């Protein structure tokens, strides 16, 4: 795995862990962004276009 996919996996795990530990509506947007970025980075494996 390259660095971008590892970062994506870490972001995904952080987003999922925050879901269970923090029950605040203010952080739901942050959780969604972390999970979305993590999934996107896992699928693509790169940040910029070739």
Helix content: over 70%
Order of helices and strands: HH
Strand percentage: under 5%
Our Rg estimate from Cα atoms comes to 12 Å
What this model shows, in words?
By secondary structure, this protein is mainly α. It is built from 2 helices and no strands. It has helices at 3-21, 28-44. α1 runs antiparallel to α2 (28-44). The chain is elongated and about 40 Å long. It starts with a helix and ends in a 6-residue tail after the last helix. The model has no long low-confidence stretch (mean pLDDT 83).
Short description:
The chain is built from two helices and no strands. It is an all-alpha fold.
Layout: helices, strands, pairs:
Blueprint: H1 3-21, H2 28-44
State the main characteristics.
50 residues, mainly alpha, 2 helices
